[in-house]
Write a structure and sequence with these properties.
Blueprint: H1 13-35, E1 41-47, E2 54-60, E3 70-73, E4 77-82, H2 89-98, H3 103-112, E5 121-126, E6 131-135, E7 144-148, E8 151-155, H4 162-174, H5 182-195, E9 205-211, E10 223-229, H6 235-249, H7 251-255, H8 275-306
Antiparallel strand pairs: 1-2, 1-8, 2-9, 3-4, 4-5, 5-6, 7-8, 9-10
Helix pairs in contact: 2-3, 4-5, 5-6
Length: about 325
């Protein structure tokens, strides 16, 4: 019997194998999506206008939250992405901030292009102190945020709104402690969140990231403070202990803080090159000038000789 045009062969072993593979792949993908844990958490993102430090602190009932939520770049901004976290928000958001866009515009751009924005949560602070948060309509309750000057706090799967309110209040109060710095203020916010009830599922991991221009090891990167507690029954307490250790280990960096914030990275785009490249630029310019002078002299000598100059009888 002849097959109708466009009809699918019913007994094709190759076609059956293809269907089986497609079904198996679909099952694996759906199972993987179902098993991906939601990053329900609370975080704070902040900027210190006195030093230029930018940072993120976070805690969650989730293994290794420091590898997912916090992102920051000196003189650019800091970002926290959580609640079914879209980790592309971190690098993409920093690139947008570096292109002179402000925190509010970046938060809008990131979430507007995300079809799953209703389950996302985001906090952004730029290097001018502007802040913006986003809480999707379908984030697990309780979920919400607070935006302030130079900081924002956000959380989901919390015991209630009192958690983010306690974080904001503690962050502001900690700034009045003489000799304290951004890392201390962020740490105070996490401790206040725990005291207010925190993540209603419990606790497991925490992280503290503070960036400072040339603040990293040997001055070769900006990771001034980068601490993580991956799996601990009391992660915030352990993170506070690690911060104290960091102050002992790198005491000079904690003492010698910047006395003023450098301008945001984008503001230097149309001015002269950074100090460390000026010497090389001048050297190249002088070498080029010297080459042109020598080349010019050689042309003049050849012209003079072509006119009979310098010939011997």
């Amino acid at each position: 019997m002849s097959e109708e045009v466009g009809a699918m062969p019913q007994d094709s072993p190759r076609m059956k194998a293809g269907w089986h593979c497609s079904l198996a792949l679909a099952f694996v993908i759906s199972a993987a999506a179902a098993e991906t844990p939601v990053v329900g958490t609370y975080s704070i993102v902040a900027f210190d206008p006195a030093t230029g430090d930018l940072g993120v602190a976070v805690q969650s009932k989730f293994f290794g939250v420091g590898s997912v939520v916090p992102w920051a770049r000196a003189r650019v901004g800091a970002i926290a992405t959580q609640s079914a976290a879209n980790t592309t928000y971190g690098p993409r958001g920093l690139e947008l901030l570096a292109s002179s866009k402000g925190a509010a515009e970046v938060a809008k751009l990131l979430t507007a292009s995300d079809e799953q924005r209703d389950i996302r949560q985001l906090g952004v602070v730029d290097a001018r102190g502007n802040s913006a948060s986003f809480t999707g309509a379908k984030c697990n309750a309780w979920a919400g945020h607070i935006e302030g000057k130079n900081f924002c706090v956000q959380g989901n799967i919390l015991v209630g709104e009192e958690v983010v309110r306690a974080m904001a209040a503690a962050y502001l109060a900690a700034q009045k402690t003489e000799g304290s710095e951004l890392a201390d203020w962020l740490m105070a916010a996490l401790q206040a969140a725990e005291q207010a009830g925190g993540d209603k599922r419990g606790r497991q991991s925490a992280a503290l990231l503070v960036v400072r221009e040339r603040g990293g090891y040997m001055g070769l990167n900006d990771r001034y403070v980068d601490l993580r507690v991956e799996d601990n029954p009391q992660p915030v307490e352990e993170l506070a202990r690690l911060l104290d250790k960091h102050k002992q280990f790198d005491a000079a960096a904690h003492r010698q803080r910047p006395t003023a914030a450098s301008p945001p990275l984008t503001s230097l785009a149309s001015t002269e090159p950074p100090v460390q490249t000026q010497g090389f630029t001048r050297m190249v310019a002088l070498a080029t000038l010297g080459f042109l002078v020598v080349a010019g002299l050689m042309v003049l000598i050849r012209w003079w000789r072509s006119k009979g100059g310098g010939s011997q009888s």
